[in-house]
Amino acid sequence: MKTKLGIILFSFVIPLAACAPNQNNSEPNPLDPNNRTPEMESDTNEPSRDKIGFVRYTQDEFDQKNASEPKEIRIDRNETAEMITSILLQNPDFEEVATLVTDEEALIAFKASDNISKETAIDNAEKTAKSILPGYYTIHASNNTSLIHNIETLHYSVMENQNTDINPLVQEIVDTMKKDD
Prior knowledge:
This protein is an alpha+beta fold. The chain has a domain at 77-180: Alpha-Beta Plaits. Helix content is 46%, strand content 12%. Helix 3 (77-89) crosses helix 4 and helix 5 (146-160) runs antiparallel to helix 6. The chain is elongated, with a radius of gyration of 28 Å. Residues 21-52 are annotated as: Disordered. It comes from Oceanobacillus locisalsi. Residues 1-20 form the signal peptide.
């Protein structure tokens, strides 16, 4: 009887012992935030880098990193314009979209189908841009299809002459968009 009881206890104790944490493990637990090491930082060349983005600093680490040269916060305007346009065109009610992103403003001109009202289309365009851009951006949207050409012309003007003052040209498009509302 003692043998059977011993076998039963033994069969429960061994699996439990295997599940117990290894106190002698010299490897830091990568899931424990208190055990961060430089080796655990992501390699920017790894394919997994495209799956998620992650950064964590303490205030001291951030201050040390930026002590010599504060980091300028920038966005890729072309990529942002591409994202806004692509998201809008996933909606079958948008047939053509032109998006221009500056330092402070986003201009969106589009051609929409008859299945969507002008107000709803403008609202969708503005909300899409707001979901992507920083909050300080001013967003203008219009279903005036002639503005698609104006935005494209403005883009090519800047590409041909980097010294072009875009502010009056952008303001002219914004004023036209405001008239259309």
